[in-house]
Amino acid sequence: MTPRANNNGKTTVDGKDSTGTEIAGNNGKVIQDGDLDVSGGGHGIDITGDSATVDNKGTMTVTDPEVHRYPD
């Protein structure tokens, strides 16, 4: 089974070690259609596995330098 997530609303992630969407497995896919706001050292999207993709059609706002936004 291929891991998938589709976020089409508003996701707010705030705080160290917080994660908005996390999937594990090869060929995973995250479809980000909504708003993703990340701050405070959080992670917006974490994917563990090979050949994974993120399709970002929404908005992603990162408001502090401790937050990682990929790809760089």
From TrEMBL:
Region (Disordered): 1-72
Compositionally biased residues, Polar residues: 1-11, 50-62
Origin superkingdom: Bacteria
UniProt-recorded name of the protein: Autotransporter (AT) family porin
Native source organism of the sequence: Escherichia coli
